[in-house]
Amino acid sequence: MAPVPYDQRDGFIWLNGKLLPWGDVRAHVLTHALHYASAVFEGMRAYSGEIFRLTEHDQRLHESAKILDFEIPFSVAELDKAAREVLRANKLTDAYVRPIAWRGSEQMGVAAQHTKINVAIAAWDWGSYFDPAARENGLRLAIAHYRRPDPRTAPTKSKAAGLYMICTIEKHRAEKAGYADALMLDWRGQIAEATGANIFFVKDGVLHTPLPDCFLDGITRRTVIALAKQRGLKVIERAIMPEEMAEFSECFISGTAAEVTPVAEIGPYRFTIGDITRTLMADYTALTHPAHSVAAAG
Questions:
Q1: Engineered SS bond to 142: which of 35, 44, 83, 179, CB 3.0-4.6 Å?
Q2: Separation between Cα atoms, residue 43 and residue 107, nearest integer Å
Q3: In the beta sheet, which residues pair with residue 183?
Q4: Which residues of the chain are modeled with pLDDT < 70?
Q5: Which one of the listed residues 116, 159, 171, 203 is annotated catalytic?
Q6: What is the C-alpha radius of gyration for the chain, rounded to an integer number of angstroms?
Q7: Cα separation, 208 vs 137, whole angstroms
Q8: 236-286 pLDDT, tens digit each
Q9: Is 159 a catalytic residue?
Q10: What are phi and psi of 293, to 5 degrees?
Q11: Alpha helices in the chain, H assignment, sequence order
């Protein structure tokens, strides 16, 4: 059965301060964001009715908007409250939550100082981001053609919609070639991230991850680093060159959608799903599903 298109689903979406029926939420074809990518967004997951790191995500949404030279007309606290309302209105407990803010249709052209800033929050049931079988065996990643840009050429500290254009291209290219995703390098040729997730490697019991100086320092990334340190694992954030992948034994990616997912292959390089990867996967699950963990322990 074909999935229901996202504009034809049932439920409610929060738009500019009001909960509206899902199908009533529309944007005009001359919306500035559609033509000039003047939009920022977040991705969050709810587990057992609680949205994980909700306030951190909404704070980042505000910061992203400021980088794109606009101000979100709702406070972080108001956005937190609205996200919880959306979850309740759609009767969801485990879900993906998507806030987005964008410039409207009041002006058409590069200059857009007088456009209205719109904000919407939607939520839907979204299971594993990757095929469960692929996730169980470890993902296969291609190496992307496009590279993450120099921070002097793009607002790389913002979760801006326009920065994901090359991610879509590379995700499509990888899937057409039989891979689950693609590893992106940065403009210097260093390892950066996957198309929608940060990346980690293991060598001799030490965790290595690229320094996020031209891509997002993911909220899940920071969570994984904290979990690793709680385990007494050493974490090194540094520049990593592609050829170093021959020396790493384990690899995994992290992100709100991806959660913590093992990687078995990147181009010509192979990895095992080892103890450190499995431990951090379990620790992340325990953190996001505390009620389940308590029940299992009992």
A1: 179
A2: 28
A3: 143, 194
A4: 291-298
A5: 159
A6: 20
A7: 22
A8: 999 999 999 999 999 999 999 999 999 999 999 999 999 999 999 999 999
A9: yes
A10: -65, -40
A11: 32-36, 54-67, 76-89, 132-137, 165-176, 219-230, 275-288, 290-297
